[in-house]
């Protein structure tokens, strides 16, 4: 098994492939995800982005797995943003019409140790602003 490399180049390549046609990434960040599991909460690393048309895309990397996700911002039914020690946490609940409710919880650090994410601080702030705008539009 090869070691996974987390850096801006990899993040942009992975997320760009997930963006719906005709949309562009407005902000993309490296983050930690909180996921529910049989033994309580577990954590995964990965990426999350919001597009210029308010789609939220990303990928969670577990030890032996990867879980891509995509949500339409119009399906957002609940959003909570909390200040965290080095950034912020987001808790989003999506309820598409006729679909199953989904929850997405992640924490974004404004700075990532090392030089793999030179625009993390700017993108973290932009994502926060976009999520706040989305909250006011949909809730």
Give the low-confidence spans: none
Can you name the CATH architecture? Roll
The span between the termini is: 43 Å
H/E order of the elements? HEEEEEEEH
Radius of gyration: 14 Å
Strand sequence of the main sheet, in spatial order? Answer: 4-3-2-1-7-6-5
The CATH topology label is: PH-domain like
Helix fraction?
A: 10-25%
**Morphology call:** globular
How many domains make up the 3D coordinates? 1
Q: Specify the structural class.
A: alpha+beta
Descriptive overview:
The protein has 139 residues and is of the alpha+beta class. It has a single domain (8-138), classed as Pleckstrin-homology domain (PH domain)/Phosphotyrosine-binding domain (PTB) (PH-domain like, Roll). 20% of the residues lie in helices and 45% in strands. It is built from two helices and seven strands; from the N terminus they run H-E-E-E-E-E-E-E-H. It has helices at residues 8-16, 120-138, and strands at residues 25-37, 40-51, 55-61, 66-72, 76-83, 87-94, 102-109. A seven-stranded antiparallel sheet has the order 4-3-2-1-7-6-5. A hairpin with a 7-residue loop joins strand 6 (87-94) and strand 7 (102-109). The chain starts with 7 loop residues before the first helix and ends with a helix.
